[in-house]
Amino acid sequence: MGLSLTRNRLLAAVAATVLFVAPGAMADDHETMEAWRLFVADHTQPVVRAIDFASGKELGRYDLKGYAALTASASGQIVFAAQTEADLIHAIKTGINFSDHGEHRDLDVSDPALLPITLKGKRPGHVVPHDDHVILFYDRGDKAEIVDEADILEGKAEKRTVDTIKPHHGVAVTMGRYILVSVPNTEIETKPDELPPRVGLRVVDEKGEQVGDLAKCTDLHGEATSARLVALGCKEGVLIARPGGVDGPKLEMLRYPADFPKAYTGTLLGGKAMQFFLGNYGEDKVVLIDPDSEQPYRLVELPTRRVDFVLDPATPRSAYILTEDGDIHVLDVIKGEITRKAKVTEPYSKDGHWRDPRPRLAVADGQIAITDPRHSLVRVIDAKTLNETRTIAVEGQPFSIVAVGGSGASH
């Protein structure tokens, strides 16, 4: 199929995943419980709502200082609300807490809450969760910050600062004791309201010292982690960082094939149960990427421009892509092709301002949650049938959405 996600390797990974998420042998005092919550930010109003996915009941409303983009922490215990125009990030406790006990995992459910801590910096951009911490990048500052999730839950923030050279719209990602940091163009002059373009990526150690040479990556944008690899989108191709030895991570540019149409990747998602990446390729195509294949790219054309896309964490071979005609498409990442589609919303054109209210996707409990800001709804679509099963009314213009939850043992 062009991916060294060879069919056998992928199917083996899927089988392993199914075995992992299936209920394990539990002691007699364990009962299985399931809980899912949606966190929805309004497009215009500075507010985030916590919603019980099963009942549609609003569990909490949190007033912020500005429009928020939402990101869940790696554990799902925190949702970060980055308010670019207000220069701060709020942290919302989801009330969903899993603890691993080998043969099973426990699930503790509590009330969601706005945590007392606020993280401040000039124009927060990318929020990148990784393991037990999160990396915050401030576009108008000259720093990124690494903060432990446990500290935030305790209402404190002991920060480790990373120098980003000068203000730019960039990103930082941890890899073991090293940090991957975008590099701005320092040789050009910019207007006061402009930020310089990104020209590459550097690796720094725990002392903040650069390790190795700068890797070229023009207009670096978009990052994702899959297994132990990190991928970053560039105009030349997708830059892959692999864990290394004493010399730090190894960087490799996967150049776009010569026969690809002219475009590039600026948004990336990383597979969790399988090692692969899914990225956009321009506005009306997506690309599957397997860094270990001799032919790492598989291009998939869409009928119209992409509005949003998301991977299904519980069904590793499925990704869902919403296009501007209002159709949801199921992409089989093993076959590398669209297998099903259905109409789920009215058309939402990509013309107009990039920040215009358009639907966003999340996956919860085998269902796709789609914000529909035009109708003040979250539409719930069955992932198997692609039929709408219900709607959840949400005041205002529901926009950014994050789903957190799963099943576990309750004592």
From TrEMBL:
Transmembrane region(s): none
The keyword S-adenosyl-L-methionine appears for this protein: no
Signal peptide positions on this chain: 1-27
Highest rank taxon of the organism: Bacteria
Coiled coil: none
UniProt KW Cytoplasm keyword: no
Protein name according to UniProt: Zinc metallochaperone AztD
